């Protein structure tokens, strides 16, 4: 990032900080990951880089949900200038569904699950959505359906694992 800055490649520097935030998150250095994401988010707004902006918002929401800081996740997503845009992956839609369910907004939670299923492209997407759906159902006190959704997700995980183990 420093070398990009010295070379005057500010956009490259910003993306490097974004990538560093992902490395920190994967190393369980959540405070540093959050700091870098917030810094990059601010710079992406200033530079008008919508792709980076969307990535930072998505990753901050995911980080906050992962850390059970769902109120902050909800706040950053709701205040986002891109909140009306589609953010992409079906797993992110599942995360948003979980976030809204934890805030008690089950109508929005269901709408994000529906969007996620519309974007699901493979078993990995389905596994993620079944697990999110299970959590949403559990939060809405629909424990029997939550259990069924969880079983579907675990069943798909088992199939994926079996297939992976059979490959050379």
Describe the structure.
The chain has 168 residues and is mainly α. It is 80% helix and 0% strand. It contains nine helices and no strands. It has helices at 2-6, 10-26, 30-47, 50-66, 70-79, 90-102, 106-119, 123-139, 143-166. Helix 2 packs antiparallel against helix 3 (30-47), helix 7 packs antiparallel against helix 8 (123-139) and helix 8 (123-139) packs antiparallel against helix 9. The longest helix is centred in the C-terminal third of the chain and has 24 residues, at 143-166. It is globular. The N and C termini lie far apart (39 Å). The mean pLDDT is 86.
Biggest sheet statistics: none
- What percent of residues adopt helix (DSSP H or I)? over 70%
Beta-strand residue percentage:
under 5%
Spans with pLDDT under 50 lasting ≥5 residues? Answer: none
Q: What gyration radius follows from the Cα positions, in whole Å?
A: 18 Å
How many β-strands, per DSSP?
Answer: 0
Structure class: mainly alpha
How far is the first residue's CA from the last residue's CA? 39 Å
Instruction: Provide the residue-averaged pLDDT.
Output: 86
Short description:
This protein is mainly alpha-helical. It contains 9 helices and no strands.
